[in-house]
Write a structure and sequence with these properties.
Dimeric_a/b-barrel, 2 helices, 38% strand, single chain, globular, YCII-related domain-containing protein, YCII, 4-stranded antiparallel β-sheet
């Protein structure tokens, strides 16, 4: 099963230190070597939102109303179960500290 794991931006203004980079690098290497990690990346805090209603398409700045709602990064993983995805997300949160992550199953080929 594939899961998209996203993490929201935080108000934490402190720059990442060398320990964080080392721990995250080791985590990414481990997941890549095991074939679990399919893709990862950071996302810009700005974008464009398109909504449609009654045949009208509206384009606005976005994608979120407030900056604190913005998704800062993602990882696409392939694991055997939701429980395994949750455990990977727990490991990620332990490395990066306080914040919020979301896990969603990805359907399709």
């Amino acid at each position: 099963m594939r899961y998209l794991m996203t993490t929201k931006a935080t108000d934490n203004a402190a720059a990442p230190d060398e320990k964080l980079f080392a721990e995250m690098g080791a985590f990414v290497e481990e997941l890549t070597a095991s074939g679990v990690l399919l893709a990862t990346g950071g996302l810009a805090p700005f974008g464009v939102r398109l909504t449609s209603s009654g045949g009208e398409i509206t384009v606005t700045d976005g994608p979120f109303t407030e900056a604190k709602e913005a998704v800062a990064g993602f990882a696409l993983v392939e694991v055997r179960s939701e429980e395994e995805a949750v455990e990977l997300a727990r490991r990620f949160r332990r490395i990066v500290g306080d914040g919020e992550s979301v896990i969603q199953q990805v359907f399709g080929p």
